[in-house]
Amino acid sequence: MTRWLMLSGFLWLMVALSGCVDERIRFDDAVLVLKDVTVIDGTGQPPLPEQTVVVREDRIVAIGKAGDFVFGDAAEVLDLPGRYLLPGFIDMHAHVTILPGEDGRLIPHYDRAASEQVLRTLMAFGVTTARNPAAPTADGVELREAVAGGEVLGPRIFTAGTVLDRGTRPFGPFVATPTEEAVREEVQKQAAAGVDFIKVYAGLPPRLVEVAVEEAHAHGLRVIGHMQRTTWTDAARFGIDAITHGAPWSPEYLDEGPRAGYRPTMKGRIYWLENLDLDGPQIEEMLTALAENNVTIDPTLIAYHTKFWGDDPRYLNHPEHHLAPAMIVEGWRQGTFTFDWTGDDYTRAKAAWPKVLGLTKRLFDRGILLTAGSDLPNPWVIPGVSFHEELQLLADAGIPPLDVLQIATANGARALGIDAEAGTIEVGKRADLVVLAANPIDDIRNTRSIEWVMLGGVAFKPERLLAE
Ligand SMILES: [Zn+2]
Known about the structure:
Blueprint: H1 2-19, E1 25-27, E2 32-39, E3 48-56, E4 59-64, E5 69-71, E6 76-79, E7 84-87, E8 89-91, E9 101-102, E10 105-106, H2 112-124, E11 127-132, H3 137-148, E12 156-159, E13 163-165, E14 174-176, H4 180-193, E15 197-200, H5 206-218, E16 222-225, H6 232-237, E17 242-244, H7 256-259, H8 268-275, H9 281-292, E18 296-298, H10 301-308, H11 313-316, H12 326-334, H13 343-365, H14 385-396, H15 401-408, H16 410-416, E19 433-436, E20 450-455, E21 458-460, H17 462-467
Parallel strand pairs: 1-5, 2-6, 2-7, 8-11, 11-12, 13-14, 15-16, 16-17, 17-18
Antiparallel strand pairs: 2-3, 3-4, 7-19, 9-10, 19-20, 20-21
Helix pairs in contact: 4-5, 8-13
The structure holds zinc ion (ZN).
């Protein structure tokens, strides 16, 4: 497509040169023209003012100054002075196959209508690609295909199947894989079912994580881990591709003294942080292992902030709860992971929060590829809304806004292995784009000032998506 365009432009130029001196590239067909916009292209380079971006079908076919081009009547032109054009956002931790709860457990089959609502909401908030990090295997693949086939409107989905863990858990789609054979069989089953990657969970011991990585890679599948029993350091050395969440919480990262007093519960995480030496040898060794093995990290800071501030009206009475399916919000009201925390626990957790941000900043400073994920629909994590809260928390960690925007776009594409065709604004890439009314470099909260979302070259108004 791109080559053809260049060739046709060239031929036209030859014709033009024989008669006159007009060197402008002519588009007579039905292109979408985004005119006079400031481009923040996701590569990390500074914003480029007064750009005109030409989209044909689902691709970006030209980028230049408005005067470089001539458009025919079939072109649709959006004049965008004062606006900012970014690649579509990639939520790398979005449980988009919504499982309803019953008696404190999640039903192992997804609610299609609730899932469709979540997908539309994500789009309205500029998310054009989502990594679904756990799903009943058949459901995850079915929803992905429904979106890919145009049957359901939503971000492009890359999905895991059922999560591999030592035992099962009450709050999600888990499969018990207590032996090497069980791990291999489950990976083979999911590969045959068509998942995009394998997810391994907190209770898997090192040897089983190693086997999962080996088996998945043999099937051409990446592995992402929510690790705890196996340290991030070991998982990195086994060749895991991605680790999700903001801290490993493994006892191995504490010095011997405090390690003895550590209980690996949700409340125990406060103690873990209080006793963690961010500049100690264990964390240093971990950072080195992650960097050397090119592991990407998806901190999902918002999934922790909502726990540490789980007593705060900003989350309990968030004005945008209506954007999450009602049954989900009802579930949050019935109980969260911090149900047993006292006022004192919350106070201590908030005091320890800078260590979570400090760990994220150290990952960033070490050049480890970070991505942005919300972990919707964990308690108080609202589809779309929370993705932008995540960007704010990454900025709070001390990451400059331009880098946060790269984390939210290009880095996600790299971690998914789709960077050849998505994640940045470049000729030949998919036209998954977001138009902002205000500058996100001035204030990262401006990522919410969305005027248009483009998915594969089709433009949508956020308010229309939310109204449906
Ligand atoms: Zn999750």
